[in-house]
Amino acid sequence: MAFTRATGKHRRPGRAARTTRNIAGMAAATGVVVSIASPALAANEDSAATTDAGLTRALADTGDRVADNIVAQADAQEEAAEVAAARTQVEDAAVKSAEAAKKKAQEERRKAAAEAAKKKAAKARASRSDARTTLSPSGFVAPIADSYVSTGYKASSGLWSSGSHTGIDFHAASGTAVHAVGAGTVVEAGWGGAYGNNIVLKMEDGTYTQYGHLSSIGVSVGQKVSANQQIALSGNTGNTTGPHLHFEARTGPDYGSDIDPIAYLRSHGVSV
């Protein structure tokens, strides 16, 4: 059965009505509210066309402004992100720098504490050595406390230019306190060639004593010293195969005037 449309019903909207609905839909999609005056039903086609053109331009301008706002917002967000990233980099660098400075300060404190402890221990050893050293009845002492002779007088070896040992060696680790065996005056204090750092004292009885291979010297030429006074620290300087104290007794200040140092010390009441 064929159907026919009843007269006056289901009529297609006119152009103006359609245009109004289209504009309203576009405005809703873009978020723009446009106030449109409904044209008179009797408006002619030219009037409707003019209205369409004006509304189209208005929507185009509105769309351009919306697009510009979106671009500007995106640019601002990108710039903010770049600033935040740069700030994060600066903060990270500052944290790393602070951590490095903290570690360096800790290491320096550790080294300083270790050095202080080392000096304190050396001072304590020297103090104990002084306390253990006892003066003989004649006022003489051994140059190293609580030690022993490791190489005797006149021992033969190619290590010495004369072919034999001109003194005696006392066993001593580097840094051990060295004492004047008796009262006297310093006549030499410094580098002594094969003897390394050495000290020569003129004793009050007119004899001389020498102390060689020292790691450090604590007196100067012309200075008067007393028996048992610490004058140096033992070491490993000069012609030597290891740390020890080389001790000589002499009739004069120079090499070649040596006498038996063990007999010398014993003659002054020192047991070696």
From TrEMBL:
The keyword Cytoplasm does not apply. It comes from Streptomyces olivaceiscleroticus. The lineage of its organism: Bacteria, Bacillati, Actinomycetota, Actinomycetes, Kitasatosporales. Residues 101-135 are annotated as: Disordered. Gene3D superfamilies: Glucose Permease (Domain IIA). Residues 1-42 form the signal peptide. Residues 164-258 form the M23ase beta-sheet core domain. This is M23 family metallopeptidase. Keywords: Signal. Residues 101-118 have a biased composition (Basic and acidic residues).
